[in-house]
Amino acid sequence: MKLEHEGQVYYRHIEFQAETRSDMAFRCFRYNTRLIVQLEAPVVTTVIYPFPPGPRGDLVFPVVVGGREVNRWRFDTVRLWKLDARWALETGEPGLMALIPFMRGGHDLPLITAAARRIEEKLPGSVMSDAEQVLLLFAGRYYTVEEVARVAGGRDVMIQSSVWQAAEAEG
Predict the structure, then answer these.
(1) Residue 74: helix, strand or coil by DSSP?
(2) pTM of the entire predicted model
(3) Residue range of the domain that includes 129
(4) Based on the number of CB atoms within 10 Å of its own CB, is 171 exposed (0-12), middle (13-18) or buried (19 or more)?
(5) Is there a contact between 82 and 60 (Cβ–Cβ < 8 Å)?
(6) Do 105 and 68 share a domain, yes or no?
(7) What's the pLDDT tens digit per position in 28-58?
(8) In terms of C-beta density within 10 A (0-12 exposed, 13-18 middle, 19 or more buried), how is residue 94 classed?
(9) Same domain for 34 and 67?
(10) Is 75 in the same domain as 97?
(11) CB 92 within 8 A of CB 122
(12) What number of helices (H) and strands (E) belong to the chain?
Protein backbone atom coordinates (compact mmCIF):
# COMPACT_ATOMS: atom_id res chain seq x y z
CA MET A 1 0.00 0.00 0.00
CA LYS A 2 1.31 3.42 -0.90
CA LEU A 3 1.12 5.75 2.09
CA GLU A 4 2.35 9.14 3.17
CA HIS A 5 3.57 10.38 6.55
CA GLU A 6 4.55 14.00 7.10
CA GLY A 7 5.11 14.47 3.38
CA GLN A 8 7.22 11.32 2.95
CA VAL A 9 5.91 8.60 0.68
CA TYR A 10 6.47 5.04 1.85
CA TYR A 11 4.92 1.64 1.28
CA ARG A 12 3.48 -0.93 3.66
CA HIS A 13 3.90 -4.52 2.59
CA ILE A 14 1.44 -6.78 4.39
CA GLU A 15 2.09 -10.50 4.47
CA PHE A 16 -0.49 -12.95 5.85
CA GLN A 17 0.87 -16.18 7.31
CA ALA A 18 -1.37 -18.98 8.55
CA GLU A 19 1.55 -20.82 10.16
CA THR A 20 4.81 -19.92 11.82
CA ARG A 21 7.77 -20.50 9.51
CA SER A 22 11.39 -20.58 10.60
CA ASP A 23 12.47 -18.74 7.43
CA MET A 24 9.93 -15.91 7.71
CA ALA A 25 12.45 -13.21 8.70
CA PHE A 26 14.61 -14.12 5.70
CA ARG A 27 11.59 -14.09 3.38
CA CYS A 28 10.54 -10.66 4.70
CA PHE A 29 14.09 -9.40 4.18
CA ARG A 30 14.09 -10.68 0.60
CA TYR A 31 10.66 -9.16 -0.19
CA ASN A 32 11.49 -5.90 1.58
CA THR A 33 14.79 -5.27 -0.16
CA ARG A 34 13.35 -6.09 -3.58
CA LEU A 35 10.44 -3.72 -3.00
CA ILE A 36 12.73 -0.92 -1.80
CA VAL A 37 14.80 -1.20 -4.98
CA GLN A 38 11.73 -1.48 -7.22
CA LEU A 39 9.75 1.35 -5.60
CA GLU A 40 12.68 3.57 -4.69
CA ALA A 41 11.05 4.37 -1.35
CA PRO A 42 11.01 2.98 2.18
CA VAL A 43 8.98 -0.18 2.72
CA VAL A 44 7.58 -1.26 6.08
CA THR A 45 6.77 -4.96 6.23
CA THR A 46 4.10 -6.33 8.57
CA VAL A 47 3.34 -10.03 8.94
CA ILE A 48 -0.18 -10.83 10.12
CA TYR A 49 -0.81 -14.13 11.88
CA PRO A 50 -4.50 -15.05 12.17
CA PHE A 51 -3.93 -18.20 14.26
CA PRO A 52 -1.81 -19.11 17.26
CA PRO A 53 0.91 -19.70 18.05
CA GLY A 54 2.71 -17.23 15.78
CA PRO A 55 6.42 -16.59 16.16
CA ARG A 56 7.90 -16.63 19.67
CA GLY A 57 9.55 -13.24 19.38
CA ASP A 58 10.01 -10.44 16.92
CA LEU A 59 10.84 -11.16 13.31
CA VAL A 60 14.44 -10.12 12.90
CA PHE A 61 16.86 -10.84 10.09
CA PRO A 62 20.44 -10.23 11.24
CA VAL A 63 23.17 -9.62 8.68
CA VAL A 64 26.33 -11.27 10.04
CA VAL A 65 29.85 -10.94 8.66
CA GLY A 66 32.66 -12.88 10.28
CA GLY A 67 30.52 -13.71 13.29
CA ARG A 68 29.71 -10.03 13.89
CA GLU A 69 26.25 -8.57 13.34
CA VAL A 70 26.60 -5.62 10.97
CA ASN A 71 22.95 -4.92 10.30
CA ARG A 72 19.55 -5.94 11.63
CA TRP A 73 16.22 -5.85 9.80
CA ARG A 74 13.11 -5.86 12.00
CA PHE A 75 9.62 -6.64 10.76
CA ASP A 76 6.35 -5.88 12.49
CA THR A 77 4.06 -8.72 13.50
CA VAL A 78 0.38 -8.71 14.34
CA ARG A 79 -1.18 -11.64 16.17
CA LEU A 80 -4.87 -11.23 15.36
CA TRP A 81 -6.15 -13.59 18.05
CA LYS A 82 -4.65 -11.26 20.68
CA LEU A 83 -6.55 -8.21 19.42
CA ASP A 84 -9.96 -7.37 20.83
CA ALA A 85 -12.70 -7.53 18.18
CA ARG A 86 -14.70 -4.72 19.84
CA TRP A 87 -11.67 -2.44 19.59
CA ALA A 88 -11.45 -3.21 15.86
CA LEU A 89 -15.13 -2.34 15.48
CA GLU A 90 -14.62 0.95 17.33
CA THR A 91 -11.82 1.98 14.96
CA GLY A 92 -14.31 2.05 12.10
CA GLU A 93 -11.56 0.98 9.69
CA PRO A 94 -13.04 -1.38 7.05
CA GLY A 95 -9.82 -3.31 6.47
CA LEU A 96 -9.40 -3.98 10.17
CA MET A 97 -13.06 -4.83 10.71
CA ALA A 98 -12.84 -7.41 7.91
CA LEU A 99 -10.45 -9.39 10.13
CA ILE A 100 -12.70 -9.42 13.21
CA PRO A 101 -13.53 -13.17 12.99
CA PHE A 102 -9.88 -13.94 13.83
CA MET A 103 -9.80 -11.67 16.87
CA ARG A 104 -10.64 -12.26 20.52
CA GLY A 105 -14.46 -12.18 20.71
CA GLY A 106 -14.74 -12.11 16.94
CA HIS A 107 -17.03 -15.14 16.73
CA ASP A 108 -19.96 -13.13 18.13
CA LEU A 109 -22.62 -12.85 15.39
CA PRO A 110 -24.05 -9.50 16.59
CA LEU A 111 -20.52 -8.09 16.52
CA ILE A 112 -19.96 -9.42 13.00
CA THR A 113 -23.30 -7.92 11.97
CA ALA A 114 -22.32 -4.56 13.46
CA ALA A 115 -19.00 -4.70 11.60
CA ALA A 116 -20.79 -5.46 8.31
CA ARG A 117 -23.07 -2.44 8.84
CA ARG A 118 -20.13 -0.19 9.70
CA ILE A 119 -18.28 -1.33 6.60
CA GLU A 120 -21.38 -0.62 4.49
CA GLU A 121 -21.53 2.89 5.97
CA LYS A 122 -17.85 3.53 5.25
CA LEU A 123 -17.86 1.95 1.80
CA PRO A 124 -21.34 2.49 0.35
CA GLY A 125 -22.18 1.05 -3.02
CA SER A 126 -24.63 -1.06 -4.95
CA VAL A 127 -22.69 -4.26 -4.24
CA MET A 128 -20.82 -5.47 -1.20
CA SER A 129 -17.36 -4.01 -0.74
CA ASP A 130 -14.34 -6.28 -0.69
CA ALA A 131 -13.97 -5.62 3.05
CA GLU A 132 -17.52 -6.81 3.76
CA GLN A 133 -17.10 -9.85 1.54
CA VAL A 134 -13.90 -10.80 3.37
CA LEU A 135 -15.55 -10.27 6.78
CA LEU A 136 -18.44 -12.57 5.85
CA LEU A 137 -16.14 -15.15 4.30
CA PHE A 138 -14.10 -15.30 7.50
CA ALA A 139 -17.30 -15.40 9.58
CA GLY A 140 -17.97 -18.69 7.80
CA ARG A 141 -15.47 -20.22 10.24
CA TYR A 142 -18.24 -20.10 12.85
CA TYR A 143 -21.54 -19.81 10.99
CA THR A 144 -23.45 -21.48 8.18
CA VAL A 145 -23.98 -19.88 4.79
CA GLU A 146 -27.58 -19.15 5.76
CA GLU A 147 -26.55 -17.32 8.94
CA VAL A 148 -23.91 -15.29 7.13
CA ALA A 149 -26.34 -14.54 4.28
CA ARG A 150 -28.76 -13.00 6.78
CA VAL A 151 -25.99 -10.64 7.90
CA ALA A 152 -25.39 -9.69 4.26
CA GLY A 153 -29.04 -8.90 3.65
CA GLY A 154 -30.00 -12.20 2.06
CA ARG A 155 -28.63 -15.02 -0.01
CA ASP A 156 -29.06 -13.09 -3.26
CA VAL A 157 -26.69 -10.40 -2.01
CA MET A 158 -24.14 -13.07 -1.03
CA ILE A 159 -24.38 -14.76 -4.42
CA GLN A 160 -23.58 -11.44 -6.16
CA SER A 161 -20.28 -11.07 -4.29
CA SER A 162 -17.09 -11.69 -6.22
CA VAL A 163 -15.80 -13.92 -3.42
CA TRP A 164 -18.89 -16.15 -3.65
CA GLN A 165 -18.65 -16.30 -7.44
CA ALA A 166 -14.96 -17.21 -7.32
CA ALA A 167 -15.64 -19.95 -4.75
CA GLU A 168 -18.46 -21.33 -6.90
CA ALA A 169 -16.27 -21.28 -10.03
CA GLU A 170 -13.63 -23.30 -8.20
CA GLY A 171 -16.25 -25.73 -6.94
Answers:
(1) strand
(2) 0.84
(3) 83-170
(4) exposed
(5) no
(6) no
(7) 999 999 999 999 999 999 999 999 999 988 8
(8) buried
(9) yes
(10) no
(11) yes
(12) 8, 5
